[in-house]
Write a structure and sequence with these properties.
505 residues, 41% helix, 4-stranded antiparallel beta sheet, 11% strand
């Protein structure tokens, strides 16, 4: 992985402006790429782009391989004859400053079903050769995902463990009958994936032509109610009914006396190894097709993971188990060469995790908001950074920097931050984010990523996610008039000043 000094912006596709209820892969995405180019930003980081799960979380997806149909831009479908302008009216009634998923999902799916019906009536509306090639090249995951999605629809959204036993256990005869019975629905889901693919690859090409690297996010675990687990049950710790026998989480600590019980099924790493990590190889292959750089969430789990009996309601009675470690990463290196991977190594990290990260020269992460609760030896303080890092003011799980300053710091932490960041007293809230951005831009870390909300100086109203809560997450969007020219100029100035620009014209 190159070690050139760069900076970039964290913004999920859903947060982009659009007239259709959610940010999408349409014109606004290309305009945002132009914004990055004008301001010499060369990383665009985003959250997982798969279909969203419960609570609209991109981290609990029914497929780690598929694209999110909600991110398909409607306007290009009008241009290609798949939709009529008036058919978009239900989407234009939706708010433009946040995503109202409850209203969006049924309306967007109706629009996409209309596009599919028109494709069925006249397949010439898209390039048949490209569609066929897409089906062939992506068949390793596409066929099982489309069948899963069709069956889930046919069962009114019920989890796969509630389907008939023959379907739940993927008996070949039952699956063949289902393919025949639900052929049109399967084709619909493949068609939607093709539309996502076309729009994604167009944006990807546009960014690459402008030296913008797309930076994705890959959760270590997958959702139980997903095509991934349903189609590969032998690779997970499940009981005879298909329910998890053990689940993932993290142990109790000072901040969480009961730990965190995430509930994801745990991998059978022994069987993964027996199969040459084939499933993980395909998972990473798909991620590397979509992104130039990929964050591996909860990297610690590859060294050791916290395994909780599924009948436990908390994480207290879990135990540490050995992960696949260097054997797994070496196999991935043999397949892909140098891994374009960032290790999410936040939280309590042991020496063995650091050794595993460093053995494969993977960048770690640092978050400035975590820096002011201790001593000058705190690893998140910029003077303690090393070069092979990706550093942030905050991430999608943090408050915005202005919100953090206003609401989250102790008196001692605020005094430390004021001194360290050289903040004037009194300091206007709207100035804090600029001092924070300057501090990490000036550091030795090779890569800096700043949430757009921090560039804009937004308060807590701009927060994307509050871990441990279920309401009002993943909904934030910005409107075009919210990015002040002054904010963009400050970003560009810091990028040039601290040697992170690709040119200095």
């Amino acid at each position: 992985m190159d070690s050139q000094r760069v900076s970039g912006v964290l913004l999920h596709i859903s947060s982009l402006p659009s007239a259709y209820g959610i940010g999408d892969l349409g014109a606004a995405a290309f305009r945002f790429a132009d914004f990055l180019t004008r301001n010499n930003q060369r990383l665009w980081q985003m959250l997982p782009v798969g279909p969203v799960g419960p609570g609209a979380s991109p981290y609990s997806s029914p497929s780690t391989f598929a694209g999110n149909p909600l991110l398909i831009a409607p306007a290009p479908l009008v241009e290609s004859g798949l939709l009529e302008e008036e058919e978009l009216a239900p989407l234009t009634d939706l708010p433009d400053d946040h995503v109202d998923y409850e209203r969006l999902v049924p309306r967007k799916r109706t629009v996409l079903r209309t596009a599919f019906r028109r494709f069925q009536e006249d397949a010439s509306t898209i390039d048949a050769t490209r569609f066929k090639k897409f089906r062939e090249t992506q068949s390793a995951w596409l066929d099982e995902y489309a069948l899963y999605a069709a069956l889930k629809e046919a069962h009114d959204g019920a989890p796969w463990t509630d389907w008939t036993p023959a379907l739940a256990h993927c008996e070949p005869d039952a699956l063949q009958r289902a393919r025949e019975e639900h052929a049109e629905s399967i084709r619909k889901h493949i068609f939607w994936q093709y539309l996502f693919h076309r729009q994604w690859t167009a944006l990807q090409a546009y960014c690459r032509a402008r030296d913008i690297r797309l930076f994705g996010d890959l959760p270590i675990y997958v959702a139980h109610d997903s095509a991934d687990v349903w189609a590969h049950q032998e690779l997970f710790h499940l009981d005879d009914t298909g329910e998890p026998s053990v689940v993932a989480g993290v142990p109790p600590d000072y901040f969480s006396p009961e730990g965190q019980r995430w509930g994801n099924p745990i991998y059978r790493w022994d069987r993964m190894k027996e199969h040459g990590y084939a499933w993980w190889t395909e998972r990473l292959r798909r991620a590397f097709e979509q992104f130039d750089l990929v964050r591996l969430d909860h990297f610690r789990g590859f060294d050791e993971y916290w395994q909780i009996p599924a009948d436990q309601s908390t994480a207290i009675k879990g135990e540490w188990r050995d992960g696949p470690g260097a054997h797994f990463l070496r196999a991935m290196e043999d397949e892909f060469g140098t891994l374009p991977v960032v290790a999410e190594d936040l939280g309590i990290i042991t020496d063995s995790v650091k050794d595993l990260r460093d053995q494969f020269a993977l960048p770690g992460m640092a978050v400035l908001q975590f820096a002011f609760g201790g001593s000058p030896e705190n690893n998140f303080l910029p003077h303690n950074y090393r070069r092979n890092l990706v550093v942030y003011t905050g991430t999608h799980d943090n408050n915005t920097t202005v919100g953090w300053w206003r609401n989250d710091l102790s008196d001692e932490g605020r005094a430390f931050a004021r001194s360290y960041l050289n903040l004037p007293e009194p300091v206007a809230d709207e100035e804090v984010h600029r001092h924070a951005i300057r501090a990490i831009m000036a550091s030795v870390a090779d890569r800096v990523v700043i949430p757009l909300q921090d560039i804009m100086g937004l308060g807590s109203e701009g927060r994307m996610n509050t871990p441990g809560t279920l309401e009002e997450n993943w909904t934030w969007r910005f409107t075009p008039d919210q990015i002040a020219e002054e904010d963009a100029e400050v970003l560009k100035e810091f990028t040039h000043l601290y040697g992170r620009a690709s040119s200095y014209d």
